[in-house]
Structures are given as structure tokens and as C-alpha cells.
Specification:
Helix content: under 10%
Shape: elongated
Distance between the termini: 42 Å
Largest sheet: 12 strands, mixed
Strand content: 25-35%
Structural class: mainly beta
Order of helices and strands: EHEEEEHEEEEEEEEEEEEEEEHEEEEEE
Radius of gyration: 23 Å
Number of strands: 26
């Protein structure tokens, strides 16, 4: 998909040259970019605009076959750019530091490429940024502390395999508008900070595939709009003394659809509050834990459930009749 949106300000020769150099450097097999000039064009049923007499405010080249590096000067030339989406291509090399000069940028989507190296700490200067999607690349290092200073962020998805560090204890005051926060499949460690659950607008929280340990904070009550919670594949724990309280607090999340807790160190019998989760719950994963005892008799109360996964545990007893009851 290729979409370019423009403002009414005159395009400078520098901006036009930057765009043409950009497409020349990104060899797209069979894409509309092979015949790009700085004028309106239509090709292969795809529409893009780069009209003479205007300046680019949105550049969207997602879901193509682009490869090569992003020109290092891109952020120095397209100075009023507000949206940049290069998702799902085969772009390589480091993400240019110059993108941090795009002071009006509110969306940066580089997901599903082959970028390497660290996330530029200079991104903390893009104060208007609301959407930051960098997942499925080959980035490394720590998540820059300055990213946590971007108070307008609504969507942060940095899902890698080699990012590490801890989540700041004061994260709850850093992202007051956050709706999607996903750090899936990294090497983040330590306890899950309690302030993480101060995000009243949070819809999706993804912390799976890391090295988080300890107890899950039992304070989900304020997350009224939470629909997706992924805590699987960590080192989180619960036992007969402590740790299951978070399930009780999740009963206040009336919009919950997916709860994935598999492959942790949750043990002993499931709490009865498990059956009081939202009737909107569609997916419940509890497998690969040390859960024992009987399946809660009232599990059938979860009338919206489509997937119930409790494999590789120590459950015993009979299957509750409520599982097969009509809904």
C-alpha cells in the first residue's frame, strides 16, 4: 500500500530530491515506486500523491516489497512530516537518527522490517509522537529512557528478541494517554511495577516472553477498558499464600477478551474468582503452570469462552458439567 499526503506549501527542490532519492534507494520489485516522479500518478490499482505545489505531511509505504536502507537525511529534509509508515517491507540497516528532527511527527511505524542496532535515544525529542511501532525487527540494546518522556503516546509496540532492562517504577505517570503497551518477546526483567496499572485508558497490555518475576500486582480494578492481557512465558508466581489476588481484581475488567497466563510459576489450586471473570472473555490460557486440584465447578459461568487451555498442569478430578452446558 502506497499513500502520500501533502499540504499546500510549495515543495522545495531539497524535498523533491529527497523523495526521489528515497525511492531510488529502495528497490521495489514490481511496486508502484519504480515509475515514481513528483506528480500525481496511478498504477496497478494503487493510488499515491506527491503533488507539485505542496509538501509531504504523510508518507505511507507499508505492505510492499521495499528493501535497502532508509536515507539518513530523510528527517532533515521532510521537515513537516506528520506520519511515516514503512511497515511490512524488507528494509535494513539502522533506523536513522535524523527522524528525531521531525518535530511534527505523530506516527512512526517501522514494524516488520529488518532494522538492526539500537533505538535512537533522540526519539525522545519527538514530543508530538502518539504511535510508535517497531516490533518484528532485529533491534538491540535497551529501550531509551527518553522514550518514557513522550507523554502523548497512545500506542507503543516494541516487540523484539534482545531488548533488555527494567520498566521504570514511575511509568504510570509517564504515559497518561496510553492505550496499547506491548513489550512482547524481549529480555525485560524484574518485578512488574505497580504504577503500570494506573493507565486508565489502557486496552492492551503485552508483557509476554520476558523475564518478569515475582507476583502480579493485584490492582487491575482501574483498567475498566482492558481487553487483552498477555503475561505468559515469564517467571511470575502464585502459591497458596499469595499471588492469585490479581485474578480477583481482574473481575472488574468487564471488557476483557483475552487472558494469557501460560508458562509461568503459578501453582496450587485456581481461585474461585477465576469463574467470575467477564462474560466477554473469549480466550483463557493457563497451561504449562504448576496448577493442581480440580477445575473450578463454575467454569461454565464464562459463557463467552471460545478457547480454554490448561494443558501440562497437575489438574485432577472430573470435568465440571458446566463446561458442556448450553449457553
Amino acid at each position: 500500500m502506497v499513500v502520500l499526503m501533502t499540504s499546500q506549501r510549495a515543495t522545495s527542490s531539497d524535498e523533491a530530491g529527497t523523495l526521489l532519492a528515497f525511492t531510488a534507494g529502495l528497490r521495489a520489485h514490481g511496486s508502484v515506486l519504480s515509475s515514481w516522479t513528483v506528480a500525481p500518478a496511478y498504477a496497478a490499482g494503487r493510488v499515491w500523491h506527491a503533488a507539485v505545489g505542496s509538501s509531504l505531511i504523510s508518507l505511507r509505504l507499508s505492505n510492499n516489497q521495499l528493501h535497502g536502507r532508509i536515507p539518513g537525511e530523510l528527517g532533515n529534509k521532510l521537515t513537516i512530516l506528520q506520519g511515516l509508515s514503512l511497515r511490512n517491507n524488507s528494509l535494513t540497516g539502522a533506523i536513522p537518527v535524523s527522524l528525531s528532527n521531525l518535530s511534527s511527527l505523530y506516527q512512526l511505524d517501522q514494524a516488520k522490517n529488518q532494522h538492526v542496532g539500537p533505538i535512537p535515544s533522540e526519539f525522545g525529542n519527538i514530543q508530538c509522537l502518539k504511535f510508535l511501532d517497531l516490533y518484528e525487527n532485529n533491534l538491540s540494546g535497551v529501550l531509551p529512557h527518553y522514550i518514557y518522556n513522550l507523554s502523548f503516546l497512545k500506542d507503543v509496540q516494541v516487540e523484539e528478541k534482545i531488548l533488555y532492562g527494567t520498566i521504570p517504577a514511575d511509568i504510570g505517570s509517564r504515559f497518561p494517554s496510553i492505550e496499547i503497551l506491548s513489550f512482547l518477546d524481549n529480555r525485560f526483567s524484574g518485578a512488574i511495577p505497580y504504577p503500570l496499572f494506573n493507565f486508565s485508558a489502557l486496552i492492551k497490555l503485552g508483557l509476554a516472553g520476558n523475564r518478569f518475576s515475582g507476583y502480579v500486582p493485584p490492582i487491575f480494578g482501574s483498567l475498566k477498558g482492558l481487553t487483552d492481557l498477555y503475561l505468559n512465558d515469564n517467571q511470575l508466581e502464585a502459591d497458596d499464600r499469595k499471588g492469585w489476588e490479581f485474578i480477583t481484581s481482574l473481575t472488574n475488567c468487564s471488557q476483557l477478551h483475552r487472558l494469557v497466563l501460560g508458562n509461568n510459576s503459578f501453582s496450587v489450586q485456581l481461585p474461585s474468582s477465576n469463574t467470575n471473570l467477564s462474560t466477554t472473555l473469549q480466550t483463557l490460557y493457563l497451561g504449562d503452570n504448576r496448577i493442581s486440584g480440580a477445575i473450578p465447578f463454575d467454569i461454565g459461568n464464562l459463557v463467552g469462552l471460545n478457547i480454554l487451555e490448561m494443558a501440562n498442569t497437575s489438574l485432577s478430578g472430573v470435568l465440571p458439567e458446566s463446561i458442556g452446558s448450553e449457553r
